[in-house]
Amino acid sequence: MGPALYLLKPYLLYVLRDALGSRFDERTRRAILAEAYAFRRRFGREVQREATFGARVFLQLSVLVVGVYRALIGRDCSATEARTLVAAVTSRVFSCMVRWADRLSSFTAAASKSKSKSKSKIEAEVEHFKRLNDVLGRRFFAPPAWRMEAIESPQHVVAFDMHRCPLAEYFASQNLSELCVAAICDLDFMLYDPKRVRFERGGTIAGGSERCDFRWRVLSEDEATIPPSDQPPS
Fold first, then answer.
1. Is pLDDT above 90 for 75?
2. Dihedral through CA 59, CA 61, CA 64, CA 70, nearest 10?
3. Which of 20, 40, 56, 214 has an alpha carbon within 20 to 30 A of 65's alpha carbon?
4. pLDDT recorded at residue 176
5. Range of the domain at 220
6. Strands of the sheet with 197-200, listed across from one edge
7. Each residue of 186-207: pLDDT tens digit?
């Protein structure tokens, strides 16, 4: 994983410029990234080796996340501010990954395009969203590293529960579960356009629950105009 992560370094510096630009100058941003990579070199080998490539990638990225967080704490950021800044970094990385997955899922839909013509708009949206989750799941969140259970749900809802998360376990080992919630778990709320899909969650493993519940509800055109707090339950 080392060489691949170093290839990401210019991109991550670009992300840090965007996320931390108003708080730190260029020299400090470079120093923060250098310290994060030094932290990963020192502690990355101690992380439990998972069976799937996606889990290994995300765990090593999580070590970098912790490295950035500790570098921020070392620059007199409070824990709250450091979590907020790290979340600004991870959200930018995750949004790029989701855009890539969305394009890939669109390619997989091309073969069944003729079949989709007879479906309603909301049915097509549900199908597209399921393909997006499938792309992400197969490439990054596959078992046995992540243990997931599909939940029976209405046609317009994509639902599953996660019973094991290696990222939650890693952050817990660092006594940084709150950072995991802010910088990792909460990214699920930005997986899809909130005007088209509403994400609902009761709790996460990192937040102290026994499971992470995922409930994405594809909205009808009428529902899309209603604020999230006024939406009816799934």
1. yes
2. -70
3. 214
4. 98
5. 2-230
6. 147-150, 157-164, 212-218, 197-200
7. 998 876 777 788 889 999 999 9
Compute the 3-state secondary structure of the chain and give helix, strand, coil in percent, each to the nearest 5.
60, 10, 30
- Looking at residue 104, its pLDDT comes to 66
Beta-carbon contacts of residue 164 (< 8 Å; ≥ 6 apart): 145, 146, 147, 205
Domain count, the chain: 1
Sign, CA dihedral 63-69-72-76, equals negative
Q: What is the DSSP letter of 211?
A: S
Closest CA to 157 of 92, 200, 216: 216
* Residue 5 pLDDT class (50, 70, 90 cuts): confident
- The amino acid present at 62, given as its one-letter code, is S
List the one residue out of 150, 149, 185, 148 whose CA is nearest residue 52: 148
Task: Give CA–CA dist 52/136, Å, rounded.
Answer: 13
CA-based Rg of the chain, rounded to a whole angstrom? 19
| DSSP at 101 | H
For the cut 60, the answer to whether the pLDDT of residue 226 exceeds it is: no
User: Do the beta carbons of residue 90 and residue 183 sit within 8 Å?
Assistant: yes
> DSSP for 149-168?
EE----TTEEEEEEEE-HHH
- Amino acid letter for position 193: D
Tokens of 141: 């969140």
Q: Looking at the DSSP assignment, which residues form a beta bridge with residue 197?
A: 218
